[in-house]
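Handout, page 2. Input:
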Amino acid sequence: MTTRSKVFEYLGITIYYRQKGKVILSLKEYIKKLLEEVPYNMNGVAKTPAANHLFNVKEGEIKLQRDKANFFHHIVTKLLYLCKRTRQEIQTAVALII
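Output:
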């Protein structure tokens, strides 16, 4: 793939070539789109990427219905991509929700 644009997107990463000899990589749009996908009851603000009960494991949980399970895996996959590229502090929380 060849492009001559000063700004383009590849694999969710926006790449800026606005100054000579400098490149800026951004995932702001990727994060914005990800947050728009999650249900309204997941909106909020937190001081840390994980809740206090993160390491508590519940036994005998009921499996999700297929459509909810597919959506869950879709979001987790996007979060795994994000934490490997920029937000390493969410790795523990993302790994434990799988």
